[in-house]
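Same chain as my last thread, 424 residues:
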Amino acid sequence: MAPYESDHNAPAGQAEDVRDGRRKAARYVVPVAVVGVAAATIGLVPAFAGSGDPDLPKISAQQLIEKIAASDVQQLSGTVKISTDLGLPNLGGLQNSFASGAFSRGAGGGGKDGSAADPSSKLLELASGTHTLRVATDGQDKQKLSLIEKAAEYSVIRNGTDLWAYDSASNEAYHATGAADRKDERTTPRDIPATPGDLAQEALKAADETTSVTVDGTAQVAGRDAYKLLIRPKQSGTTVGAISIAVDAKSGMPLKFTLTPAAGGAAVVDVGFTEVSFARPAASTFDFTPPKGTKVTQGDDLRAERGSRWHGEGKAAPKGLPKALPKDMEKPVPGAGPETIGEGWNTIVVLGDGKGRMPSGGPASGDSAVSGFLGSLGDHVKGKFGSGTVFSTRLVNALITDEGKVYAGAVTKDALVKAANAGK
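reply #2:
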């Protein structure tokens, strides 16, 4: 179907109302968040369920955004299909090994002294491949996500102040408390953007004057009638082609999210419900007792142990970790904090101080191991800025210069080189 209405030709006052509606939507779509993958881009192939497009009353882009903002779904259960097609090389187990090692050095992460069930590392698996999730929520304090695999199941359950994660493959569980009120909790079910609503929230935040927003007909998703909101960048140079959000015609909750790249081809992100119910889940859904013989890791104990080393509480550091930070890491690197250049969909984040140090004080691309690894995956480029390596995916690209600066964004390789040249 042809778009019902485009707001980019609307009068100034109406256009401002549309932008206000987007900002409200970005703030208030939170109730539909069940669980999440950090910063994730997800791609899947499931077609819209049902045959034929439903005949629904016409609605403007502004009205549909306001409908999303007004949505207040507190109870639901269903099945979500999710996968990622970033075009990354097949690294076998290297990616998971690196992630596990990285998190083992942080508070509450996986690793040899952590837990295979820790959500911080386990849910990184959602960043690649195709997955089936079962989700359930009952208000702000009860959520459950289950990752269904061929011969195993992994679940994250929040029930009030208790957070449980269980990995049936390893028969390990992770437990933490205070999830309802502790802001530094590393991962809770509602923090992980694994539903269409979570991703729609981020897309609507990006919708400004550099964006065209239209209603692009109707569809049926998980047996429910839905409108399709189409978001397109007006700018050239971005890797984002379009974002389509299927919005439940009755509740206003996003049911499906699809991000296609400017270069064409399969979706980079395509996450949608295949089954959904808005009935209240049974209370037992959020109960969990570790099976007999399960190894249980207490996340609060790990956090206290590791946090004491980083926050100077005077306790002994875990074995194998230094007792104090290196001198050159104790204070922030002046001028090395992240900055942005460009606007809208062409925004580029700049990291590093150009002196071989990243904002965290860690090594930049000059480190032999890091530069060797990046060099094997990326493209070597030169310009007025000097030389560096461009690491590319189908959505996000990053240029790491030999001097230690990083330019990253959902933009083309040429745009990154141009930004680096302008920064010299």
